[in-house]
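Ticket #4471: structure output looks truncated?

Reporter: J.K.
Steps to reproduce: submitted the chain below (340 residues) through the standard prediction queue, then opened the result file.
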Amino acid sequence: MRRSVLEGSAIGTLLSLRNGMMDEELTQDMPLTLQEAFDIVLDKAERGEPLCQMIIGNVYFWGDFITIEGRLWEDFERDDDVECFFRENYAKCEDWLWKAYRNGLSLVNPNLSNFYNEGKKGLIPPRPEKELEVDHYGVERGYPDCIFYYASTLYDSGETVKAYELYRKAADLGEPRAYFRTGFSYEVGKGVPKDAARAAQYYQQALAAPIPVKANAANRLGMLLYDGKGVERDYDRAFQLIKWAEENGNVPQLYYLGACYANGHGTQQDYTKAVQYLERIDWNCAPAFYLLGKLYCNGLGVPKNIAKGVKYLEKAGEYAPAQEERKHYKKNLFGRWVRR
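Returned output as attached by the reporter:
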């Protein structure tokens, strides 16, 4: 980026300004002024170049025109003149972003949608109804990223069936951010028959994709690998993925991490850590209660407490392993729980 500026690229100059790379040293050494760079890119935009149209639109959307023009507060006679200046220039982003959009540059969708959804505080009111127009246009044109954005809008509004349908369409068109949702739809049967194997494939694609958010895919694939659903059981890989997701800020999969530590699956056996994870479970999870029952009854990772262990085993309900384990314990003549 710096090299492009120093060698006289007008596009590089405006992008460097937008990306925060335009420091004092670069400003002094660059051959073009910001206004000269703007005029060159504007000329290309007016002649129909989509990337330049997007760059000009973003100059107005983000307010970079203030820096480019070098306007100061004292340049205006009245406060009303300042407001008029900002309002008129911010508004110019709409036309330029639409031109780039119609010329096939779907990258403008987020900024154009934001302009309609939020407006510019105190200057331009929001027009949320126009945001849907932006999404619909991208969907109709078959832009994978726009299909993903619209699917997310539907998902957030509770229209999950339609959302998952669009997520699958976006994923099949190569939108990497849609891989996780598509995999999840196959895993739980959202709008399609359950298919753990296909779910695993999409989760693997999400993990291999150049996207920053991967923890959800890591968790779900790790769970499938641990249970051997749709893929060959692999405890080592399962623990690596689920633990990685936790270490990267995702909500920990308490049962699976507890089970890995309790059984030594994919990691060194550590009963204390197993109990720490399993006791945080506050929902009905029979396999977790079964493990906790065994750990307490045998004093593994915690002081031995058969009574507490049996309570966990009974809490597991009809879970067969818990019922079998429960047969090993009884109350003695003094009403204390003991091993048979």
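Triage note (M.O.): checked the attachment and the full token line is present. The CA atoms of residues 200 and 221 lie 6 Å apart.
Status: closed, working as intended.
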